[in-house]
Amino acid sequence: MNVLMVDLVNQYKRIEQEINKAVLNVFNHGRFINGPEVSQFAENLAQYLNVKHVVPVANGTEAILIALMGLGIQPGDEVIVPAFTYIATVEVIAFLRAVPVLVDVDMATFNINVGQIEEAISERTKAVIPVHLYGQAANMQQILEIARQHNLGVIEDNAQSLGAEYTFSDGHRQKTGTMGDIGTTSFFPTKNLGGYGDGGAIFTDSDELYKKMRMIANHGQNKKYFHKYVGLNSRLDTVQAAILNVKLKYLDEYISKRQQAAKMYDERLADIEQIILPSVQQDRTHVFHQYTITLKTNNRDELKQYLADKGIPTQIYYPLPIHWQEAYKQIVKLPVSLDNSEFLSEHVLSLPMHTELTEEHIDFVSETIKSFFRNK
Fold first, then answer.
1. Cα separation, 198 vs 188, whole angstroms
2. CATH number 3.90.1200.10 given to 8-248
3. DSSP per residue over 44-62, as a string?
4. Angle (deg, nearest 10), helices 60-70 and 88-95
5. How far is CA 350 from CA 5, 209, 262, in A?
6. Residue 284 three-state SS
7. What is the DSSP string of 327-356?
């Protein structure tokens, strides 16, 4: 059976005519930079998220960089970030010569351990970046309460959880990326809302931050050749915006398909004592950018190879926590223990997860995992 980690080709084929029409329209009008599709996509995404402003940018990494610049992060400032995340979240802090302050993650959700944030705050702390990892929100109510108490900026790294929701204790719900001062996302092709190339976006309800970040993304200028801020060139191409405009209409459908696939995995893998299945918190929805299991045993790599031998791809997100990365050992600040991050890096395994998974695919993957543990 041909099982893919991600199947973008068959997803494209379902909307082929719409995509082709949108792209050809760009070729016909010829406005490849800042064409009308870019502003239209910003409006459509803002409406979907129920947020005032969206700034489309070149990729998710630059989205976080511009967000930090928007908050005025300076060399020597400290920014709190989870140790178990993709490197982009941390590298932009280092790029600005600020200090990444690492805290641990929660074992159940893989998201930032809220209980350690206050321990990590110093007089130099200026912001915290919760990462909504694998498709589920961090504990935003407590994060926002701590941030308000200590006057910290909050940047939500929403690259993996676009469309997920969080419910506050008073009952109101918000989509991830819209609760802090700034939210960021990536449109890398494998994301739940992915383009056919690089892309990213920044969201905010602040008029002031919107104006500043929009200028930073455009060489620091609001008027051509007049530069108010040190900026960079970070634009979402018109072709990508046209593609994303089409795919945004299907995002909730894509999320539903991923949730259905996750439910099938849950049902079929529930009786395997050696693994822990993804935990979905009652106050949150999970959009399953990844379906990640945690092995209680020490044979994760052996299972990965066993599945590969059967034609089943898997991925390890992430094999090293940030403080074990060679480039960051001398840069990061480690005020708390990072036991969970270290454990997870050696025990997590992400299974195939995409919109084109069938019940037969999931049966095959699940039965192969069961056969591995039966032979142990």
1. 5
2. no
3. HHHHHHT-SEEEEES-HHH
4. 40
5. 9, 36, 12
6. strand
7. GGTTT-B--S--HHHHHHHTTEEEEP--TT
| Contact indicator for 86, 318 with CB cutoff of 8 Å | yes
pLDDT of residue 375: 85
Quote the CA–CA distance of 2 and 312 in Å, as a whole number: 8
What whole-number distance in Å separates Cα of residue 151 and Cα of residue 329? 28
Alpha-carbon span 146 to 138, nearest angstrom: 14
Output phi, psi for 202, to 5 deg: -125, 140
The per-residue pLDDT for 221 is 97
d(CA 273, CA 163): 32
DSSP 158: -
Distance in angstroms (rounded) separating the CA atoms of residues 99 and 155: 15
**What's the topology of domain 252-374?**
Aspartate Aminotransferase, domain 1 (3.90.1150)
Task: Give residue limits of the domains in the chain.
Answer: 8-248, 252-374
Q: What is the mean pLDDT of each run of 10 residues along the chain (376 residues)?
A: 96 98 98 98 98 98 98 98 98 98 97 98 98 98 98 98 98 98 98 98 98 98 96 98 98 98 98 97 97 98 98 98 97 97 98 98 98 90
**1-38 b/e with 16+ CB inside 10 Å = b?**
eebeebbeeebeeeeeeebeebbeebeeeeeeeebebb
Residue 376 CB neighbours (<10 A):
9
Q: Taking a C-beta distance cutoff of 8 angstroms, is the pair 54, 236 a contact?
A: no
SS3 state of residue 204: strand
